[in-house]
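name: query_chain
kind: protein
chains: 1
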Amino acid sequence: MMIQWWMICFFFLIKYSFINCKDYQCNYTITKSDNSTEKCFNNQCYQYLDIISIMVEPNTCKTSFLSLSFSSYKNYILFRDRLEWKLGDLFSSRSLNENRQLILFIDYLDYDDKPFDHNELIRLGINIDFYIIYIRHIENKMYLYGSIQYDPNYPEWHFIKLKL
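structure:
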């Protein structure tokens, strides 16, 4: 009887741990523009500006949330184009209860940047439900008119949220 009780407890412990790990807290190693490396969790990586590469540890870890920061959209494009894979590969497969979000904090968006161009979005890959860009400075707000929203939690930022 005692063995059965321990087996049931062990089963619930494993099941409970699996459920709580559904929103994986992945550990990333990022390389900054000065070629130094830092470790961060998916909800902390935005603290490092203009990273040039990102690796997840272990490489099988998938997340539902990742935030990154760049001084300009062009620096984000350089980062994205250096990757040999798509950012969507870092995210978990589709789940009914999840909203997989890639959040970018971009200090400056130029008038010729096209963050919501169809070809740009294809380069993100799959497994992303929401693509959210927080922008501090926008060269010409008119070409984004109607898309820009304001967040009271970040009053100095404009943001655009796109459901993919």
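note: The first helix runs from residue 2 to 20.
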